[in-house]
Design goal:
heterotrimer, A mainly alpha (about 900), B alpha/beta (about 130), C mainly alpha (about 100), B: about 130 residues, alpha/beta, Rossmann fold, 5-stranded parallel sheet, globular, C: about 100 residues, mainly alpha, 3 helices
C-alpha cells in the first residue's frame, strides 16, 4: 500500500519534472532551437487541456450513473474540430491578425475595442471559471483522500492539502505564464509541459482501461458481455440532455478561456489546425474508449456506496495494483494541474488587460509622464490576478465543501461560458452584429444562467427552497427551473435552452436595432472578411503623435531592446533617415497591434490614443476619408465614362463631318461639271450669235453654217437638261415604271432604228434575231433608252474603219443577258471604272454628249432590277446588260 | 506685221468662233485641240499670244500654264485663259500659275477682242 | 460562405474566368464536402435517439451495440477529416488568396 508520503513525493517529483520540461522548452525557444516545439503534434496535445480532472475522473462516474451520456462531452469538440475549415480557421486567423490575447479581447476588439464588453466577458469567465478551478482542486483532494484512507499514519488533512495544492499551482502558473509579456512570443514552456501532461493522462487512463478489460474482465468479448449484463447495459439516454450536452461541449470548447488560450493565442501556425482536425478527435476517442468498461467493472466489483467518480483510482487499488493506481493518480493530477495553470493564465491576462490596466490608465493621465515601467506593472497585475483567481477557487471549494458531483459543476461552468457563443459567432460571421447587441445578449444569457442554474445548484444558502418551488414572490412562471411554466425537463437542459436562446434573440434584435460606431464597423468588416484582407489598416492619424513619447511608452511595455528593435525596423522601412520612425498610420497600427499582444486591444488602443490624441475621432476621420475617396473614385469613374462618351460623340461627329464634306465635295464637283457642260454650248451660241449680229457682209453660206452651229448647240443644251432631269428623277427614286410585255427583238428593232435615224448609217449592226425571241415584262421605254444609248455610243465612238456592232442575247440562269460588242479600240482599262460615273468621258471627243448617258443607263438598269457592266477582253467596247426575265419588283 | 495667236481649245465650235473673230482683227490663228502635247505645240509655234482652255483632254490648261511658266523663254508670253467652270477658286489657281488674263465662258466677242488687244499691247510695250 | 458569394466578391475586382479548370473545380467541391462533414457527424450522432428505449417491448438496444455504433461513427469522422487534411495540404488550399469560399 502506497503511503501518503510516497504519493506526495511522487507528486513533487512530477511537478519538478514539469518545471524542467517547461524551463527547457523556454530555453530552447529563446535559443531559436526546437522546431518541434511548434509542431502540429504539440499543438494537438496542448488542446487536450480540454480534458480536465472532471473528464478524467468524472467521465467514469457519469458513465456509471447514465451510461453513454458522458460521451457527449467529447463528441461536441469532435464536431467543432472537423468543421475547422470554416469555423476554427477563421477564429484562429482573426486571433492572429488582430493580435488577440484572450476571448475577452476578441469580443472587445470585434465590437469597436469596447472595454465594457471585455470587462463583462472577464467577469463571466471568472465567475464561470472559479467553480471549475475549485472542481480541479477537489478532484486532487479527493484522489489524495483515497490514498489517505489507506494510510495508517493519518497525517492527511484535507483543508491544508487543498491550500498547498492551490499555492503550488499558482506558483507554477506565475513562473511560466508571466515570464514574458507579448502573447505573440507565446508560452512555449507551459504549452510543452501541457503536452507532456496530456500524454501522461492519456497513458494513465488507457493503462487502467487495458488492465480492466484484459486483466479483470478477461478480454474484449467477455467485457462486452459484462457491459450488456450490467445495470447500465441498455441504451438509454435522455434525448434533451444528449443533444444539449453535445451542443454545450461544442460551445464551451471554443468559448472556454483556457481553450481559447491554447487554440488561438498559443497557435503558431494556422496549418496546425489541419492536423488537429483529425488528431484531436482521435485523442478524445482514446480518452473515452475505456470509460464504460472501467465504470462497469467498478460497479460490479466495488461496494454500493463507493464514489463512481473515483473508480479510475479505486478499481486498480481494489485489485492491489498500487503502481497502476499511482499512475492513474498522476494522470488525474496532470489533468487538474494543466487545466488550472492555463485557466489561471488566461483569466489573469483578461483581468490585467481589461480590468487592472484600464483602471491604472485612468488614474494616470499620461503614460509618458508616469515614472516606472508599464511592463512591470502589467506583469505584476497578471501575477496578482493568478494568485487571486486561485484564491477564489480555493475559497469556493472551502465554502461549497466539495459536495456536488463533479460532472454537474463542470456542466454548469460550460453553460455559463457558452453565453459568449452568440456574440462570438455573430461577430465572426455577421457584420451587422453590434456592441449593444453583444452586451445585451451576454447580459441576458448571463443573468438567466445565474438564476436558473448557478444559484439553484449552490444550495439553500444562495437560493431559498421556496423560490425554487413557487418562484420569487410566489410568481410561479418565474420559478428558476420552470421558466414561463415549462416544467418537467431536466434543469440543465431547461437552463441552457432558455439562456442560450434568449441570449441569441436579444443579441440579434439589439444588433438590428442599434447602430454601430465607425470603429465597430471597421473591425466588423475586418473580422467577417478576415480572409480577404488579413492585414488591413486600422486608422491612426499620427500627425500629432510624438514618436519619442511612443518610443518611451513602448519601451515600458515591451522592454527596452524589443522596443528599440521595433522602432529601428520601422525607421528602416520608412527610409531610415531619422533614428525614429515617422508616426504614419501604418506604423501606428502595427505598433498598436504589437502592444495589444501585451496589454490587449482595448488598452493598447487607449494608450496610443492618449499619446496620439483623439482615438475615435481619427478613425472616424479615416472612415470619412474612405467614404470620400470612394465618392471620388465613383466621381472619377463617372468622369471617365463621360469623357469616353464625349470622345465617342466626337468621333461620330468627325465621321459625319467627313461624310458631309465628301458629299459637299461631290456636290461641288457635280455643280462645277454641270456649269461647265452648260457654259460650253452657251459659249458657242453666244459667240456665233454675236458674230451674226455684229459682222457685216457675212456670206449666205457662212450665215447658214453659223445658224446650224447655234441650232446644234441649243439642242445639245436641251439634251443636257433632259439628261440631268432624267438622272435626278432616277437617282431620287421618283421614277414611275410603266410595265409592258414585248419581246426583246422588237425592243431592239425600235432602239436600233431610233439610234441610227438621221445618220449616215455607217455603223453595221449584227444580230441573231432567232435568239431574241425572248418575252419581256419590264419598262420597255426605259430599256429601249438604255439600248439606244449603247448603240449611239458605238456609232459615235467606235473608231474602226468599218464599225460593226454585234448584239447577242442569252438566257443565263433566269437572267436575260444582252451584250453590245463593237470592233473599235474599246475603253482603256484605267477608264473602265469611271465610265458609269456622271460626266465621265473617254477620249477627247466632245460631240454632243455630256457624259451622262452611261450613268443614266446604270440608274435605269438598277431600277429595272438588272445591271449594266463593261465586258473586258472582247476586242472592242463591250457592254453587258442583264435583266431578270420576269420583272420582279426591284428593291427600291 | 504678223501677229500670231495660238488657240488651245477642244470644243470645235468655240475654236471656230474665236478664229473667225481674231482673223478679222488681223491675227494669224492656229488651233490645237489636245492638252497632252500642247506645250510642245506652243514651243514649236512661237506665238505672240496663247488662248488656253482649262478643261482639256489629256492635260488640264492649268498644268500646261504652270509648265509653260517654268520655261525660261515663256515667262513673259501673254496667256489668256478661258474656263467654263467659272468658280473663283479656278481664277485664283490660274493667277497663281501665272496667267495674264482670265475669262469665264460664255464671253462676249468684244471682251475677247479687247483682252487680246490689251495683252498684245502690254507685251509689245515691254 | 458559399462559393457563389466568393465569386460575387471577386467579380468586383478582376473577373475570374467563367469556368474553372477541372482541378480547381474539384478542390472547391471538396471544400464544400469538408464544410458538410460536421452536419453529417451531427446527424449520425443524433440518430441513436430514435432507437427503442430500454422500457420498450423489444427490450432496447444493448449498450455494447451502442458503443460500437458511436465509436464507429467517430472513427469514420476522424478518417474523413484526416483525408480532407491530406487533400488540403496537397492542393495547398490554405488561405491567402481569399479562398475561404473555397
Amino acid at each position: 500500500m502506497a503511503t501518503l508520503n510516497v504519493l506526495i513525493l511522487v507528486c513533487l517529483g512530477y511537478v519538478v519534472l514539469l518545471f524542467g520540461v517547461a524551463f527547457a522548452a523556454d530555453r530552447m525557444a529563446v535559443a531559436g532551437r526546437g522546431k518541434w516545439l511548434r509542431s502540429p503534434l504539440i499543438y494537438t496535445l496542448s488542446l487536450s487541456i480540454y480534458c480536465t480532472a472532471w473528464t478524467f475522473y468524472g467521465a467514469v462516474g457519469n458513465a456509471a450513473r447514465s451510461g453513454l451520456e458522458f460521451v457527449t462531452i467529447y463528441l461536441g469538440p469532435t464536431l467543432v474540430m472537423i468543421s475547422w475549415w470554416w469555423g476554427l480557421r477563421k477564429l484562429v486567423r482573426v486571433g492572429r491578425s488582430q493580435r488577440v490575447t484572450s476571448i475577452a479581447d476578441l469580443l472587445s476588439s470585434r465590437y469597436g475595442k469596447s472595454n465594457t464588453l471585455a470587462v463583462c466577458v472577464t467577469i463571466l469567465a471568472v465567475i464561470g471559471g472559479t467553480p471549475y478551478i475549485a472542481l480541479q482542486l477537489q478532484s486532487i483532494t479527493l484522489s489524495f483522500s483515497i490514498f489517505a484512507e489507506a494510510d495508517p499514519s493519518g497525517l492527511y488533512r484535507e483543508g491544508s492539502s487543498v491550500f498547498w495544492v492551490a499555492a503550488g499551482l499558482a506558483m507554477f502558473a506565475i513562473l511560466f505564464g508571466t515570464r514574458n509579456l507579448d502573447a505573440n512570443e507565446r508560452h512555449h514552456g507551459v504549452v510543452t509541459a501541457i503536452a507532456v501532461e496530456s500524454v501522461v493522462k492519456l497513458f494513465a487512463l488507457v493503462a487502467v482501461g487495458i488492465f480492466v478489460v484484459w486483466g479483470v474482465a478477461g478480454g474484449f468479448g467477455p467485457m462486452m458481455e459484462r457491459i450488456d449484463a450490467s445495470e447500465i447495459g441498455k441504451w438509454q439516454v435522455d434525448a434533451g440532455r444528449w443533444t444539449t450536452f453535445i451542443f454545450l461541449s461544442a460551445a464551451a470548447f471554443v468559448c472556454l478561456p483556457r481553450m481559447f488560450q491554447v487554440m488561438v493565442v498559443e497557435n503558431d501556425d494556422e496549418g496546425h489546425l489541419r492536423t488537429a482536425a483529425w488528431a484531436f478527435p482521435l485523442y478524445l476517442l482514446l480518452m473515452s474508449l475505456f470509460v464504460v468498461p472501467i465504470a462497469v467493472v467498478g460497479l460490479d466489483m466495488l461496494s454500493e456506496g463507493s464514489n463512481p467518480d473515483l473508480f479510475v483510482l479505486t478499481v486498480p487499488l481494489s485489485q492491489g495494483k498500487d503502481g497502476l493506481a499511482m499512475l492513474s493518480f498522476i494522470g488525474g493530477f496532470s489533468s487538474a494541474t494543466s487545466m488550472v495553470i492555463v485557466t489561471a493564465m488566461a483569466l489573469s491576462t483578461m483581468v490585467s488587460n481589461h480590468v487592472v490596466m484600464p483602471i491604472w490608465l485612468n488614474t494616470h493621465e499620461r503614460v509618458g509622464s508616469v515614472p516606472g515601467d508599464v511592463r512591470n506593472i502589467v506583469l505584476m497585475a497578471r501575477r496578482i490576478s493568478i494568485a487571486a483567481i486561485m484564491a477564489l477557487g480555493y475559497f469556493y471549494y472551502s465554502l461549497s465543501g466539495g459536495g456536488a458531483a463533479l460532472a454537474s459543476i463542470g456542466l454548469v461552468a460550460f453553460s455559463g461560458i457558452s453565453q459568449i457563443l452568440p456574440a462570438m459567432v455573430g461577430g465572426l460571421f455577421w457584420r451587422g452584429a453590434t456592441r449593444t447587441g453583444a452586451l445585451a445578449g451576454l447580459t441576458v444569457g448571463f443573468v438567466l444562467w445565474i438564476y436558473t442554474l448557478l444559484l439553484p445548484g449552490m444550495g439553500a444558502a444562495w437560493m431559498p427552497e421556496s423560490v425554487l418551488l413557487n418562484g420569487p414572490f410566489g410568481i410561479a412562471w418565474l420559478r428558476p427551473q420552470a421558466l414561463f411554466g415549462i416544467e418537467g425537463i431536466d434543469p440543465m437542459v431547461h437552463s441552457v435552452m432558455w439562456s442560450i436562446s434568449l441570449n441569441t434573440v436579444v443579441f440579434c434584435v439589439a444588433s438590428l436595432l442599434s447602430f454601430p460606431s465607425p470603429l465597430e464597423r471597421l473591425q466588423g468588416a475586418q473580422f467577417v472578411n478576415v480572409f480577404d484582407h488579413s492585414v488591413a489598416p486600422r486608422g491612426w492619424t499620427g500627425s500629432v503623435a510624438q514618436s519619442e513619447d511612443l518610443m518611451i511608452m513602448t519601451q515600458r511595455i515591451l522592454g527596452t531592446s524589443p522596443a528599440q528593435e521595433l522602432f529601428q525596423r520601422e525607421a528602416e522601412l520608412q527610409g531610415g533617415r531619422s533614428p525614429l520612425p515617422e508616426p504614419t498610420p501604418g506604423f501606428l497600427a502595427r505598433l498598436e497591434r504589437e502592444l495589444s499582444g501585451s496589454v490587449g486591444a482595448a488598452t493598447a488602443h487607449a494608450m496610443i490614443g492618449q499619446i496620439v490624441g483623439g482615438a475615435s475621432v481619427s478613425v472616424e476621420d479615416l472612415l470619412a476619408v474612405a467614404d470620400e475617396s470612394a465618392q471620388l473614385l465613383e466621381y472619377s469613374s463617372q468622369l471617365e465614362e463621360k469623357s469616353a462618351e464625349l470622345s465617342r460623340t466626337a468621333r461620330q461627329l468627325r465621321d459625319a463631318n467627313a461624310k458631309l464634306t465628301q458629299i459637299s465635295e461631290q456636290k461641288d464637283s457635280f455643280l462645277s461639271q454641270v456649269s461647265h457642260e452648260l457654259r460650253t454650248p452657251m459659249t458657242s451660241i453666244r459667240a456665233f450669235s454675236e458674230i451674226m449680229r455684229d459682222t457685216e457682209g457675212l456670206s449666205g453660206e457662212e450665215q447658214t453654217r453659223y445658224a446650224a452651229i447655234i441650232h446644234d448647240e441649243a439642242l445639245r443644251l436641251t439634251r443636257l437638261l433632259d439628261d440631268l432631269l432624267d438622272l435626278s428623277v432616277l437617282e431620287n427614286g421618283q421614277v414611275r415604271l410603266n410595265l409592258g410585255d414585248d419581246t426583246l427583238r422588237s425592243v431592239l428593232d425600235r432602239s436600233i432604228s431610233s439610234a441610227l435615224a438621221g445618220t449616215d448609217q455607217r455603223l453595221v449592226v449584227r444580230r441573231s434575231k432567232a435568239s431574241e425571241r425572248i418575252p419581256l415584262q419590264t419598262d420597255l421605254d426605259r430599256l429601249g433608252q438604255v439600248f439606244i444609248n449603247l448603240i449611239s455610243n458605238a456609232r459615235k465612238y467606235c473608231d474602226a474603219d468599218e464599225p460593226v456592232l454585234t448584239i447577242s442575247a442569252h438566257d443565263v440562269g433566269g437572267q436575260l443577258v444582252v451584250d453590245f460588242i463593237d470592233n473599235g479600240s474599246g475603253v482603256p482599262p484605267d477608264a473602265r471604272s469611271m465610265i458609269f460615273e456622271k460626266f465621265a468621258r473617254v477620249g477627247g471627243d466632245k460631240a454632243g454628249g455630256a457624259g451622262l448617258g452611261l450613268a443614266i443607263c446604270r440608274e435605269i438598269m438598277h431600277r429595272l432590277g438588272g445591271d449594266i457592266t463593261y465586258l473586258p477582253g472582247q476586242g472592242g467596247a463591250a457592254f453587258r446588260v442583264s435583266l431578270p426575265l420576269a420583272y420582279r419588283q426591284a428593291a427600291q | 506685221m504678223s501677229r500670231k495667236v495660238l488657240l488651245i481649245e477642244d470644243e470645235p465650235n468655240i475654236a471656230e468662233a474665236i478664229r473667225f473673230l481674231l482673223t478679222r482683227e488681223g491675227w494669224q490663228v492656229e488651233t490645237h485641240g489636245d492638252g497632252a502635247d500642247a506645250l510642245q505645240v506652243i514651243q514649236g509655234a512661237q506665238p505672240d499670244l496663247v488662248i488656253l482652255d482649262v478643261m482639256l483632254p489629256g492635260k488640264s490648261g492649268m498644268d500646261i500654264l504652270r509648265d509653260l511658266r517654268a520655261l525660261d523663254d515663256m515667262k513673259d508670253l501673254p496667256v489668256l485663259m478661258l474656263t467654263a467652270r467659272g468658280q473663283s477658286r479656278d481664277r485664283e489657281m490660274a493667277e497663281n500659275a501665272g496667267v495674264s488674263r482670265f475669262m469665264t465662258k460664255p464671253f462676249s466677242n468684244a471682251e475677247v477682242l479687247t483682252a487680246v488687244r490689251d495683252l498684245h499691247a502690254q507685251a509689245t510695250q515691254l | 460562405m458559399t462559393s457563389s458569394e466568393g465569386q460575387d466578391r471577386t467579380s468586383r475586382g478582376a473577373r475570374p474566368s467563367l469556368f474553372l479548370e477541372r482541378q480547381s473545380y474539384r478542390r472547391r467541391r471538396l471544400a464544400d464536402s469538408a464544410r458538410l462533414l460536421p452536419f453529417l457527424g451531427g446527424a449520425l450522432l443524433v440518430l441513436p435517439l430514435l432507437w427503442p428505449d430500454a422500457e420498450s417491448e423489444s427490450g432496447g438496444v444493448p449498450l455494447s451495440s451502442a458503443i460500437f455504433y458511436i465509436f464507429a461513427c467517430w472513427i469514420g469522422l476522424i478518417l474523413i477529416s484526416l483525408f480532407f487534411g491530406f487533400v488540403a495540404r496537397r492542393s495547398g488550399v490554405d488561405d491567402s488568396h481569399g479562398s475561404d469560399a473555397g
